[in-house]
Fold:
Amino acid sequence: MMSGIRAQQKEKTRRQIIDAALGQLSAERSFSSLSLREVAKEAGLAPTSFYRHFSDMDELGLTLVDEAGLTLRQLMRQARQRIEKGGSVVKISVVTFMEFLENNGNIFRLLLRERSGTSAAFRAAVSREIRYFTLELCDYLQHANKLNAEVAYLQANAAVVIVFSAGADALDVDKKERDDLAQRTILQLRILARGALAMSSKA
Structure:
């Protein structure tokens, strides 16, 4: 019984460290500018306690990237559940993504920054998460729209580029600008979807 309680407490403390690191990220602060001491203090821990959960800041950073990727994939599943209840696939997907940015801006900032950051390990981890996200979208498009595999992948890849670009622009703007961006993104994705259907029918 004690070991179960200890495992729960360990997981709770690990979560505190992750949340403390995410909470300190902002438009002005990147992960690479955070120190272990700062993160530990924000989590309410002694710096030495940090090492019981992560070997160093790099391991924490890679964990954050994994979590960001998982959050994005969960977001897509959430959008699919909304789509099943009826409505425009593209509109619901973009609205769900914009809601995610409002509530999880720091997670998205981490992905954007580390995608072109100085750490090769971080760049590889972000690329892997984006690839998973793209492949899951590709699979969905292939089955939902009866596209051939190549066209579905091209559409998924282009859609991710468009959405990530819109997300980067939407992070630090007011609601009106974000709504305008969402509308533009919806139109771009609809044009892309029509092109994919036309290509697939000719293939």
User: Anything to note?
Assistant: DSSP finds eight helices and no strands in the chain. The CA atoms of residues 41 and 47 lie 7 Å apart. The two ends are 61 Å apart (CA to CA).
